[in-house]
Amino acid sequence: MKFQKFCLWFFKISTRFFKKIQKYTHTWEQEKLGEICSINCGSLDANAMEHNGKYDFFTSGVEIYKINKYAFEGPGISIAGNGANMGYLHLTDGKYTAYQRTYILQNIEVNRMFLYCTLLNNFLPKCEKLTKFGGVPYLVLEQIYNHMIFRPTYNEQTKISSLFSNLDSLITIHQWECNFWKFRNFVFDFLKFQLDFLKKYKNTLTLENSEK
């Protein structure tokens, strides 16, 4: 979730920049989301997950579960359709399936990473508002289909998506490094604890032997 929020902040900054320069390049068209991709909904209950499943199972939560059957295949984007995490996005690949309130975008006519970042920027915040101020929030197909997005030229889409792919890689590497250093520090702390314990134990034995 932290990565998505960081992407949202960074995308807003970059979007302002690209909007400023678009008058010097090409005019960005505005289209409905449903006109540039197919939108389908999952059909499974959230409890259909299987611990040792072979395929990804996307629900309305942040976590990706596993299952032994699939309904979708190929690159796409999943959108959580209800609950506290409504609007949460995942990039989907390979074979997978989805919960009955989770929407799957496929056959995407624009650069997928560009669309993913665009939805982070202008769709997810709308869902967060509905979640915060609504009752039991849920999305209907029309809300997703009619959502408007800006569509720059394909070259501009590629530049933007490349920027975020590189950013994602850097963050992933950084997270791995952070985890590595945390683990290393944990090992060092544990070894220090062992050493201190053995020293104290040795001193105790020495003291006991001297008193005999």
What does this 3D model show about the protein?
The chain has helices at residues 2-21, 112-122, 124-133, 141-145, 154-211; strands at 29-32, 38-41, 55-58, 65-67, 72-73, 76-80, 89-92, 95-98, 102-106, 148-151. It is α+β, with helices and mostly antiparallel strands and 212 residues long. The chain has a single domain (2-158), classed as Adenine-n6-DNA-methyltransferase TaqI, Chain A, domain 2, CATH 3.90.220.20. The model has no long low-confidence stretch (mean pLDDT 77).
Question: Which features does this protein show?
Answer:
212 residues, Adenine-n6-DNA-methyltransferase TaqI, Chain A, domain 2, 4-stranded mixed beta sheet, 10 strands
